[in-house]
Structures are given as structure tokens and as C-alpha cells.
Amino acid sequence: MHQKIQIFDQQIIMFVKKAHPYFVRIALFIVYFWFGILKILDTSPANPLVMQLQEKTLPFLTFKQFIILFSLYEMLIGILFLFKKFDRVTIILFILHMLTAFMPLIFLPQVVWQGWFVPTLEGQYIIKNLALIALVMSIGANLKPLEKKDENN
Question: Would you kindly state where each structural domain of the chain is located, as residue ranges?
Fold first, then answer.
């Protein structure tokens, strides 16, 4: 019986190791593309938060202009996560997105905090991005270092 459990355990681990990279990419695609589509269709519950942040940080743009660009940016990130050859570019775009995604924690404290270390629903929405960061780190951890170019050539 113990040997069957060991074999089953090994099979599960092998499956997860093989499937993990694909699940990570598909999950990131779904989150980014879906949330981007919701924003562009003006059906995202995050739009009011995005509008408040945009008014504070980029007041020279109209919200309509900004939300279209921002939505397309999120959808692009989602699409790029599906293609391994774009990982470095995608990670850079992701980092830039995360920098903006965490801005409300500082610039809109009244919207994202209901008390000391007690986030509102909007704050929780932002903090969940730590899970996305962990997923992207797993992609980055599997990148092969760029090769040095020979200085003599």
C-alpha cells in the first residue's frame, strides 16, 4: 500500500512539474486579458479606482483616453505571457504595471484602507497582486541568462 502511495505521489509531482509552466501562463493571460476587456467595456469594478488614480497622476489625459490605453496595455501583457520568447519584455511591462497597480495604496489611502493594515475591497484587489508577482517570478526564475557577446567580434 505504501509503495502505491509513493508511486501516485511521484506521478502527481511529475504532472505538476510538466503542467505548471503552461498553467502559469494561461492564468496570467486570463487575468490580464479579462480584466483589460472589462475596463475597456466600462464594466470593471476597478474603473472608479483607476479613474481616481488617473486624475491624481495623469490629469492631462481624459479618463476615456487613459482607460482605452490602459486596457490595451493589460490585454497586451496577457497575450505576451502566452509566448515564452517575449518573457523578458513581458516581465518589464508587468513590473511597470505592478508599479502603477500599487500606487493607490499610497496615493489613495482613503479608498484602499479602512484602518491600520485593514484594506477595503479595493485594497484587497490590489494586494492580491502579490500572487501575480509570485507567478511571474516563477517565469523569471526559469529564464536562461543572456549570453555575453564576444568583445573581439
Answer: 2-141
